[in-house]
UniProtKB/TrEMBL annotation:
UniProt entry tagged with the keyword Plastid: no
Name this protein carries in UniProt: Methyltransferase domain-containing protein
A GO molecular-function annotation: S-adenosylmethionine-dependent methyltransferase activity
Keywords noted in UniProt: Methyltransferase, Transferase
Species of the source: Epilithonimonas vandammei
Pfam families per UniProt: CARME
One record GO biological process: methylation
Domain of life assignment: Bacteria
């Protein structure tokens, strides 16, 4: 057993967070706020006199996304502590995104479009080429909606896959329990024709992969800063598009504690730092040196260019020079 504490279960989502009341209030707040944004769009579109077809398409998209978020929120509503909700301290400005981040990942991970499959396939293939085949288990940090962890499950007996976001893990459960999940990615600009303004997407997990997940992959909510895992219980820890979310100095010790001697740390991504403290925006070389000074030997340090969260309906997409860094913990 790798877990060192009990979990709470809300609407099928396993949650290993100590202050669960606060966590649920925060999760509710984030999603509720996002839906306020969807609602404002819908209200604004009612009065539009020009470009009626354009606004009709956008209205259908925002309405579906709005109803989706209501569905995610509804099991939380009766259990959220009102006092905690009123005291949520999360930065309000950061909570409203045009499209729920979950949908950008669902689009790449579970809609099986060429652009997403290409990103996944090339990165997974390169990373696997540096890993031995005799490792027992793996941990995926900030796993999003989980496709990458599932793609690695063939080389491990067991995969532990965690994210701090309630909705990311909720969406995986939703796909596991139902045939499909529909959502929209509205984009008011960078589009060629009305057809691309708000395409509807259908995410699904094929039955073969559902079986694999049931047998091998454990998805759960936890914070990398307080992992619910025993010391030296993990053979390979993956930080894919995650290293730049939180400063290394905050999570290195916690993660290092759970990695076995002779185990692996794998980073993949462009070091696109999403926090503001420049003193923690390490270069790749500094990052690698830090690991080497703390008991790891570098296995590889190289770049792979891929598109990122590319949606072929848009005339705009990101290309990343992803840094792949694989290091082995000294025995
Ligand atoms: C850029 S996304 C990458 C998702 C995934 N690795 C992928 O590439 O598909 C970063 C993820 O980290 C999660 N995250 C942020 N802070 C976290 C924390 N403290 N502990 C665990 N996950 C966290 C976010 O919810 C988000 O899903």
């Amino acid at each position: 057993m790798v877990y060192n504490k009990e979990f709470a279960e809300i609407d099928g989502v396993k949650i290993f967070i100590d202050d669960i009341d606060n966590y649920l209030a925060e999760s509710y707040f984030l999603l509720f706020n996002h839906n306020k944004f969807n609602e404002a769009k819908l209200l604004n579109y009612i009065d539009q006199q020009k470009r009626k077809e354009y606004f009709k398409i956008l209205t259908e998209a925002y309405l579906c996304n709005y109803n989706n978020v209501i569905e995610t929120l509804s099991p939380l509503k009766p259990i959220v502590d009102t006092d905690k909700l009123l005291n949520v301290t999360t930065n309000r400005g950061n909570n409203v995104n045009m499209t729920l981040k979950d949908y950008l990942y669902l689009h790449r991970d579970w809609c099986f479009y060429d652009e997403g499959e290409n990103q996944i396939e090339s990165s997974v293939k390169l990373i696997k080429s540096y890993l031995p085949s005799d490792l027992q288990n793996a941990l995926f940090l900030g796993c999003g909606v989980g496709r990458l962890s599932v793609e690695f499950s063939d080389i491990f007996q067991k995969v532990y896959s965690t994210d701090k976001s309630y909705s990311m893990i909720w969406h995986i459960n939703k796909l596991m329990s139902e045939k499909s999940f529909e959502f929209f990615t509205p984009q008011q600009k960078n589009v060629y024709s009305l057809q691309e303004v708000a395409p509807k997407h259908t995410a699904f997990i094929p039955d073969t992969l559902k079986n694999t997940i049931n047998q091998k992959v454990d998805f759960f909510v936890s914070d990398v800063l307080n992992l619910p895992l025993n010391e030296m219980s993990i053979d390979a820890a993956f930080s894919i598009y995650f290293t730049d979310v939180i400063a290394l100095k905050l999570w290195f010790d916690k993660l290092n504690n759970v990695i076995n001697k002779g185990g692996y740390f794998i980073h993949f991504g462009p070091l696109d730092y999403f926090f503001s403290d420049e003193s923690e925006m390490l270069t790749a070389v500094e990052f690698k040196t830090f690991f080497e000074q703390n008991g790891y030997t570098t296995i590889t340090d190289q770049i792979l260019i891929t598109s990122h969260l590319n949606d072929s309906n848009s005339m705009c997409f990101k290309v990343y020079r992803n840094w792949l860094f694989v290091a082995k913990k000294d025995a």
